[in-house]
Design a protein that fits this description.
Keywords: Carbohydrate metabolism, Lyase, Schiff base
Largest sheet: 4 strands, parallel
CATH superfamily: Aldolase class I
CATH class: Alpha Beta
Organism: Azorhizobium caulinodans (strain ATCC 43989 / DSM 5975 / JCM 20966 / LMG 6465 / NBRC 14845 / NCIMB 13405 / ORS 571)
Number of helices: 10
Order of helices and strands: HEHEHEHEHEEHEHEHEHH
GO molecular function: 2-dehydro-3-deoxy-phosphogluconate aldolase activity
CATH topology: TIM Barrel
Helix content: 25-40%
Number of strands: 9
Radius of gyration: 16 Å
Distance between the termini: 24 Å
Bound molecules: 2-keto 3 deoxy 6 phospho gluconate
Strand order of the largest sheet: 3-2-1-9
CATH architecture: Alpha-Beta Barrel
Strand content: 5-15%
EC number: 4.1.2.14
Protein name: 2-dehydro-3-deoxy-phosphogluconate aldolase
Length: about 220
């Protein structure tokens, strides 16, 4: 079992945009807007038929973009996303079989969890940086604050229900390394080709301070 450490990647930005790409032609301008806004870590969700191709074109054409794959739920997807250019993998939750496969993935992984027991099971497999999903309905920032005492080795990237108003509460916790969210990539703005809006929202998100230390 050999896992790559995701922290050097996550150190690059306090917010990981969670992107749903419906039209392939949106991928490059969207990714450019995110990178220009200061959010180079782009999680492309495997929720649409063009997701893999979107990862490939972003990886090939957008300088500075660090493409990841989101919504990975099955071991069979790991090879496909890495081949498409994903340099990290994010999962919404983690079955035992998926966890075993992720432990051998050739790229850094943020496996999803929503409870102390799930976090402990992942910790036992060697995963130290976890996605906390869905963050708000699962207990939000107070939950992660509560885990810091009993599980001090773990770091989290909460996602789900996070926006500009509550992101600072999460990022103020030393065990939160970044937050994920779709608020910087609103579906209506993408549909309208309004990538300036994405750039503007990203620039604000990129400035959010975080308490976590990376050295
Ligand atoms: O598709 C996945 O694998 C996910 O991880 C779900 C996303 O993380 C959330 O949909 C983002 O949450 P919002 O910022 O509340 O929109």
């Amino acid at each position: 079992m050999s896992q790559s450490n995701p922290l050097p990647l996550i150190a690059r930005a306090p917010v990981i945009p969670v992107v749903v790409i419906e039209r392939l032609e949106d991928a490059v301008p969207l990714a450019r807007a995110l990178v220009e806004g200061g959010l180079p870590l782009i999680e492309v969700t495997l929720r649409t038929p063009v997701a893999l191709r979107a990862m490939s074109v972003i990886a090939a054409e957008v300088e500075g973009a660090i493409v990841g794959a989101g919504t990975v739920t099955d071991r069979s997807q790991i090879e496909a996303v890495v081949e498409a250019g994903a340099t990290y993998i994010v999962t919404p939750g983690t079955t035992p079989a998926l966890a075993q496969a992720l432990a051998e993935a050739p790229v850094p992984v943020l496996p999803g969890c929503a409870t102390a027991s799930e976090a402990m099971a992942l910790d036992a497999l060697g995963f130290k940086v976890l996605k906390f999903f869905p963050a708000e309905p699962s207990g939000g920032a107070p939950f992660l604050k509560g885990l810091a005492g009993p599980l001090p080795a773990l770091r989290f990237c909460p996602t789900g229900g996070i926006g500009p108003s509550n992101a600072p509460d999460y990022l103020a916790l030393p065990n939160v390394v970044a937050v994920g969210g779709s608020w910087v990539v609103p579906g209506d703005a993408i549909k309208a080709g309004n990538f300036d809006k994405v750039r503007e929202l990203s620039a604000a998100a990129a400035k959010l301070p975080r308490a976590a230390k990376f050295d």
